[in-house]
Fold this sequence. Notes:
By secondary structure, the protein is mainly alpha-helical. The protein has helices at residues 3-51, 57-71, 74-86, 90-115. The protein has one domain (3-115). Helix 3 (74-86) packs antiparallel against helix 4 (90-115). The radius of gyration is 15 Å and the shape is globular.
Amino acid sequence: MTPWVGVLAVAAGGAAGAVARWVLARWLGEGGGLVLANVLGSAALTALVLRAGSWPPALLLLLATGVCGALTSWSTLVAQVWWAAVQGRWRAVLAVLGGSLGGGLAAVLLTWWSLRR
Length: 117
């Protein structure tokens, strides 16, 4: 695989993942959309790690680094938590942090458990 194929695979997957996160945020609101994106991305990346096997490197870059990397977003999580804290919206802080971290970990464990059987 040439470096440009890798760049294009990550860029295409990143575009798809970012748009999916944006759609979820419009559908469920900023906090709920971000939590769902993080949970879905965690489950999807776990499934990819467990099932990828001998998949082509470009496909893994497209799906894992591109789609899952852009769908889940640490920077958006930190920004939303920061702004909610600055505004004194502590329930939102706990909901977004708890949902993203707890939900993401639960998604990883459930995906791992269901695919390893």
